[in-house]
């Protein structure tokens, strides 16, 4: 039975010659190609460089990125930068390590026990409301003006977001999974290791990303106090002498460290949460 | 039902459960012989899930009275598979098992439910049917004396559901645990169960023995007549069907 008469053929040709119906509008942006996230920062640096070269931006207001880069390279070459970087990194990461460790332990205690929640949660919320800067005078009285004070203040600054995000993740655990654990008669230890901790891991990584940059931002202020080392010290001295290029070097170091730390945490996250990536593939 | 011995595996006496003063289960008294496959039917809010959760001991938030008795070894099969997404399928199966040969048994059980090749997969990559097969395997791996299943196939498509009925029936036949299956699906109950209880307003309103031989056919006249009766009990206007 062939009903493809000439008339029908003509009719179907007419159908296919019409323009295709419009697709529904996309409404959401598509996926960003790799590396395009750097476009914004690069554009700012380019405009900044151009403004400096054209004389719009005086070197006393702000050094050109190229000048700062040259200064940075020279400071690395003559060995003046790395000791300061090492001193800062030592403080920042000591504080980070202690803060993450304590934050996670407090979150576990508060998230998994009622006593812990009753005792700890209010305390951390109070700490959260008090700015780190406001604690400096008191902590100086307690711990002096040496390294201990600096590391302690970074530690307390880092502890808060780690606690809050990890605690929230533990609290937000899927009740279905808790019921399952009960019907499988898991012990408390098994429940924590196999259900609670892996379930809270995404929240923990959010907090870790906040913490790795927070430990550096707290540092600048602290390196104003009684020290001859550190990036913060370097920048403040440069301010006194009007060396905007060194200030820019310091800012670049913070930016680079921030991006690098974030990338490292993302990498760890991707490894630890590889089960997530597979969803939808 | 001569093949069952009549030692009750599950017993309840005046079992009552209330939530915020609202009684959801009212003085349910019930005996289920060992090895019996019981389907609980009822409209939404009739108390069938509450009864199941009471037997599973998962109702800490309820106001309780009455007594119940269940065997030591109980497995629960939930509507959502509740596989932990961060454990591979095989590790989900062996979760909480302390037997040294648990992994080998789990692999064999995955074979029995037809997803042996998914042992090392992440649960997030499985289809709904595969997830429920894994959940069924996890339940049965514990060789339960009582299997409590809360609408285990409710979220599956019609074809997958039919396959799962066959699978569940075959696997249960092997060991004959007592089964309590909560379902909305009258056909599911009629295909699988030895006995169908209809719950209404928190109480057992009807108790039907299903004496049809296996494998059951929907075309069997007794099947059809019981089906219409049950649908009627559940508030479906059967003269329109």
Automatic annotation (TrEMBL), chain A:
Where are the stretches annotated Disordered? Answer: 1-32
Q: Does the keyword Transmembrane helix apply?
A: yes
Q: Which UniProt keywords apply?
A: Cell membrane, Membrane, Transmembrane, Transmembrane helix, Transport
* Compartment(s) where it occurs, according to its Swiss-Prot or TrEMBL record: Cell membrane
What domain of life does the UniProt record list for this protein's source?
Bacteria
PROSITE patterns of this UniProt entry?
ABC_TM1
**Primary location:** membrane
Recorded topology in the membrane = Multi-pass membrane protein
Transmembrane stretches in the record are 92-113, 125-145, 151-170, 246-268
CDD domains the record matches: TM_PBP2
All copies of the ABC transmembrane type-1 domain together span 85-265
Q: Is the NADP keyword given for this protein? A: no
Similarity-based family = Belongs to the binding-protein-dependent transport system permease family.
Protein name, as recorded: ABC transporter permease
**Organism, scientific name:** Paracoccus benzoatiresistens
Automatic annotation (TrEMBL), chain B:
**Which InterPro entries does this one have?**
AAA+_ATPase, ABC_transporter-like_ATP-bd, ABC_transporter-like_CS, ABC_transporter_ATP-bind, P-loop_NTPase
Task: Cite a single Pfam family from the UniProt record.
Answer: ABC_tran
Span of domain ABC transporter: 10-226
Q: Name one GO molecular function term.
A: ATP binding
User: What keywords sit in the KW lines?
Assistant: ATP-binding, Cell membrane, Membrane, Nucleotide-binding, Translocase, Transport
Q: Which family does it belong to?
A: Belongs to the ABC transporter superfamily.
Q: What is the official name of this protein in its record?
A: ABC transporter ATP-binding protein
What organism does this protein naturally occur in? Paracoccus benzoatiresistens
């Amino acid at each position: 039975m062939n009903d493809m008469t000439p008339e029908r053929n003509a009719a179907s040709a007419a159908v296919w010659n019409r323009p295709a119906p419009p697709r529904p509008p996309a409404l959401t942006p598509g996926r960003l190609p790799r590396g395009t996230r750097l476009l914004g920062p690069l554009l700012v640096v380019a405009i900044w460089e151009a403004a400096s070269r054209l004389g719009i931006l005086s070197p006393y207001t702000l050094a050109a990125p190229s000048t700062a880069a040259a200064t940075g390279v020279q400071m690395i070459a003559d060995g003046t930068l790395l000791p300061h970087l090492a001193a800062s990194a030592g403080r920042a990461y000591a504080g980070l390590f202690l803060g993450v460790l304590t934050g996670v332990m407090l979150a576990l205690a508060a998230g998994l026990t009622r006593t812990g929640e009753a005792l700890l949660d209010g305390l951390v919320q109070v700490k959260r409301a008090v700015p780190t800067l406001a604690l400096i005078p008191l902590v100086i009285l307690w711990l002096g003006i040496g390294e201990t004070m600096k590391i302690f203040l970074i530690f307390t600054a880092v502890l808060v977001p780690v606690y809050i995000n990890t605690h929230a993740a533990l609290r937000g655990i899927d009740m279905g999974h808790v019921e399952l654990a009960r019907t499988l008669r898991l012990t408390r230890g098994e429940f924590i290791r196999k259900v609670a901790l892996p379930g809270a891991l995404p929240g923990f990584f959010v907090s870790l990303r906040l913490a790795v940059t927070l430990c550096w931002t707290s540092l600048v202020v602290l390196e104003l106090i009684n020290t001859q080392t550190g990036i913060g010290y370097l920048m403040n001295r440069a301010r006194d002498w009007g060396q905007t290029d060194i200030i820019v070097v310091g800012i670049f170091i913070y930016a680079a460290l921030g991006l690098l730390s974030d990338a490292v945490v993302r990498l760890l996250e991707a490894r630890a949460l590889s089960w997530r990536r597979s969803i939808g593939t | 039902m001569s093949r069952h011995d009549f030692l009750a595996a599950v017993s309840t006496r005046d079992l009552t459960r209330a939530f915020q003063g609202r009684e959801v289960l009212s003085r349910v008294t019930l005996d289920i012989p060992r090895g019996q496959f019981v389907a609980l039917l009822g409209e939404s809010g009739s108390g069938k899930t509450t009864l199941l959760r009471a037997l599973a001991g998962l109702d800490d938030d309820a106001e309780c009275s009455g007594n119940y008795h269940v065997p030591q070894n109980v497995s629960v099969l939930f509507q959502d598979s509740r596989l932990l997404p961060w454990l591979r399928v095989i590790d989900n199966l062996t979760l909480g098992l302390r037997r040294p040969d648990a992994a080998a048994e789990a692999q064999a059980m995955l074979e029995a439910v037809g997803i042996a090749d998914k042992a090392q997969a992440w649960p997030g990559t499985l289809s709904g049917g595969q997830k429920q097969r894994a959940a069924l395997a996890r339940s049965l791996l514990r060789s339960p004396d009582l299997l409590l299943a809360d609408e285990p196939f409710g979220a599956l498509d019609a074809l997958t559901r039919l396959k799962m009925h066959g699978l569940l029936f075959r696997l249960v036949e092997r060991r004959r645990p007592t089964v309590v299956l909560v379902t909305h699906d009258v056909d599911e109950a009629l295909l699988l169960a030895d006995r169908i209880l209809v719950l209404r307003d928190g109480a057992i309103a009807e108790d039907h023995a299903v004496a049809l031989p296996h494998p059951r056919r929907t075309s069997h006249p007794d099947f059809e007549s019981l089906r219409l009766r049950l649908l009627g009990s559940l508030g479906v206007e059967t003269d329109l069907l």
